[in-house]
Amino acid sequence: MRETRLAADDFILPLFACAGKNVRREIASMPGVYNLSVDEIAKEAAAASELGVKGIILFGLPEAKDEAGTGAYHEQGIVQQAVRAVRESAPELVIMTDTCLCEYTSHGHCGVVRDGEVLNGPSLELLARTAVSQAEAGADVVAPSAMMGGQVGAIRDALDDAGFDQVAILAYAVKYASGFYGPFREAADSAPAFGDRRAYQMDVANVREAMYEAELDYAEGADILMVKPATCYLDILKTLREQFDLPMAAYHVSGEYAMIKAAARNGWIDEQRVMMETLTSIKRAGADIILTYYAREAIRVLSS
Question: Residue 43 catalytic?
Fold first, then answer.
């Protein structure tokens, strides 16, 4: 009689790659989530694959940052190294890569900054270079999260020109300027050095703008549309599901994960029950794919 059912295939596990060897550093605000060196990422991905995780998304913490975010598109960038290591240790996994500059720029913004302004046009070239570099390393899916206008089209053209027409694009089509990203910024060391990202991320009050942003990414060649965050925007996810025939994703973000963890540690909620209720609500609203730090725990529950 149950109308909505979760399955292992629904989940994508985010992993954070960092420099060094034998590094496994827990993120204080995200219990159970770690910054992992490339060798540890390879082990973690293999273990996740054996458990039943079908896909991961990789974020990078470079050894050094600069104004142009060169670590994002360098052949030996931290994500590129992690992709190659995971491809060898867990060949069956779908490997997604975060395609953005914020983790690699000294100023912490998602694009090129001049005179205190984030410039959309010059940022597109660097985002496209990043996507091609990640595809060359072996990524199956690139996920542009910078919210620069025209980024999906620029990346699609660059991938096709480089011979990577089979590499898919998961578009952060609707990404709100949310307060739920705090723990992630600790994990990825990506907080902006000045200002915030409201100039290029969406106002949390807007619905029509979400439809407009999704239409643009759809028209530019996105293969998957995503809403971020998930639980406060289930109405947006449902509306997009009804509007578009592409696969739909939702990102159950760091702050949403951290709140469940914190409440459970205080004994206020049943963590397993609330985790599964939350993930079910995201799928019920229309998500085909859920990016969540709870991927492994959810799969264990489903297989028990």
Answer: no
